[in-house]
Each structure stands twice: as C-alpha cells, then as structure tokens.
Amino acid sequence: MPRITLQTLMNIAAVILGAFLFSIGVNLFMIPGNLGDGGVSGLAIIILYAFDISPAISTLVLNGILLIIGFKFLSKRGMYYTIFAVIMMSVFLGLTQTWVVETNEVMLNVIFGGLFLGLGNGLVIRIGATTAGSAIPARIANKYLDIKIANAVLIFDLMVITIGLTVLTIEQVLLTVVAMYINVKVMDFMIEGMNPKKAITIISKHPEVLSKLINSEIGRGVTMLNGKGFYSREENDILYVVISKSKLTRLKRLIQKYDENAFVVVNDVNSVLGSSFV
Questions:
Q1: What confidence tens digit (pLDDT) does each residue in 158-210 have?
Q2: What angle do CA 134, 183, 105 make, to 5 degrees?
Q3: 93: how many CB neighbours lie within 10 A of its CB?
C-alpha cells in the first residue's frame, strides 16, 4: 500500500479549501446577486435560473462528462485530484446553498464573488488539478496550444456567459464579466505565486564589477555567458541572474550607478526549481 506523504495531505487540504471557497463564491455572492458565471458553474447557474435544479446536482453531472473527455489529455495524478475536487465542490455547493449574505449593493457580489471563485480555482489548479468545468479544456489548450491557463479559462467562460443571455439581462451579463475578470486575475495570482521571480539579462562593459556587486549587494549568484555582437563582432560577457521581484528596483539602481549604458532585459519567471534559490 503506497504511503501518503505530507505533500499529498497538503494537496488534499488545498483541494478541500479550494472547493469550499469556490462554493462560497457561487452560493453567497454570484447567485444572490442574480449573476452568472463561466464554465460548468455558469451552466449550472443558468440551469438553476431556468429549471430550478440545484447547482450541486448539475455541476456533478456536467463535470462528470468533462472528466471522461479530459481523462485522455490530463495526467492521472491531476485527474485523481480533479475527481476529488469535483466531488468536494458538489458537496460544498449542496451544504452552502442555504447560506445567505445580505447585500444591498450588487458590486459587492461582483467583487467578492470573483474573489472567492478565483481563490478556489487558484488553490486547486496550483497543485496540478482543476475544478473541472472550463479548467479542463483550458488545460488541454495550455498543453497543445501553449495558451496561458487563466486566459484560456476566460475565453471558455465568455462562451458560456454568452449563453447566459437566455436567462440574464445585458446588465447582469456585463456585471458577470467583471466578476469573471476578477476571478481570472486572482486565479492567475494564486497560480503564479505571491512573489513572482524576475530573470535579468545584462550586457555591460563591466561584467566582472557588476557580478561582484550583485553577489555582495543583492545576495544572488550570477551566471556569466559568452556572447558576440552581430554587427560589431565584439565578444561580450552576458550576465544572467534570477531575483525576487522585491529586489528588482534595487538591482536596477545598482546597474545604473555603475554602468548607465548597460543593456538590461527583464523577464517574468513564475517558477524556479533548485534548492539554492530562497
């Protein structure tokens, strides 16, 4: 019998918490605000408005269909967590459907609905699973079309919200789009991490000096690469360093102070592997 590791327990806890937060977003904010949503939850809300069928039931059925399709495209590990997430989401949608938050301002429903949906989705996707719905086709698009997951989710969700025009007014649909945008931004933030890293490429006439300063002042190691200018044919040492976003401004000032003519390129890095990076 395989051992259950601490990481596995943490992943399970993340799925449970994510499913709960997602359900809070749907039942306490989106539905009371007469708003829709994207993906399967959006279809479930449309079914609720049209036929008075509980989202706890419709999401389980619709997600079950998507899981059958997604099983071919997603890893078995991710699929197992996704199945668990779908079950927990349906359970929490059922448990929280009678919970009420009284608000007299629909924008509160929009903001907090999008926030809780994004937190729930982000927690689950961060461990390699999904809450099914549009997240499954989004992961397929990410795998084969190299489309960012959050952007793919937004595309599929907008397709669903268009269908929502059958039971929602234009104003409700527009407010739903705002909530979905908040959802995507929060989810993107959760997936990429609270402190994304930056990869810095530096071409300078003083690479040795800058390397030592970055090491001593910023506290990061520097990789020195060999390069050659295409037109000048001059060989130059190119510096490459990965730092936390919080240290970026400090690094820029350091480079400008000692070589204001240095050519600097900054790229986003959402994941860094290796025990040496803290």
A1: 888 889 999 999 999 999 999 988 988 898 788 766 556 888 999 988 888 89
A2: 125
A3: 25
Residue 192: per-residue pLDDT? 67
Whole-angstrom Cα distance, residue 29 to residue 103? 9
Q: What is the pLDDT of residues 28-38, one digit of tens each?
A: 999 999 999 88
For residue 163, how far is the Cα from the chain centroid? Answer: 24
Q: What is the pLDDT confidence band of residue 96, given thresholds at 50, 70 and 90? A: very high
* Residue 184 CB partners (closer than 8 Å, separation 6+): 118, 150, 151, 153, 154, 157
- Residues 30-71 pLDDT 10s: 999 999 988 888 999 999 999 999 999 999 999 888 888 777
SS (H, E, C) the chain: CCCCCHHHHHHHHHHHHHHHHHHHHHHHHHCCCCCCCCHHHHHHHHHHHHHCCCHHHHHHHHHHHHHHHHCCCCCHHHHHHHHHHHHHHHHHHHHCCCCCCCCCCHHHHHHHHHHHHHHHHHHHHHCCCCCCCCHHHHHHHHHHHCCCHHHHHHHHHHHHHHHHHHCCCHHHHHHHHHHHHHHHHHHHHHHHCCCCEEEEEEECCCHHHHHHHHHHHHCCCCEEEEEECCCCCCEEEEEEEEEEHHHHHHHHHHHHHHCCCCEEEEEEECCCCCCCCC
Report the phi/psi class of residue 146: left, alpha or beta, with left for phi > 0 and alpha for psi in -120 to 50.
left
